[in-house]
Amino acid sequence: MTVTDKSGNFETCTFKISNDADTEAPVLTCPSDQLLNCKSLVPNYLNLVTVSDNKDTAPILTQDPIAGTAFTDGMVITITAKDVSNNSSTCSFKVNTSADVTAPVIACIGDQILSCGAIIPDYTASITVTDNCDASPVITQNPIAGTAFTAGMAITITAKDTSNNESYCSFKVKASADVTAPVIACIGDQTLSCGSTIPDYTLLVTANDNCDASPVITQNPIAGTA
Question: Could you give the maximum distance between any two Cα atoms of the chain, in Å?
Answer without folding.
Answer: 177
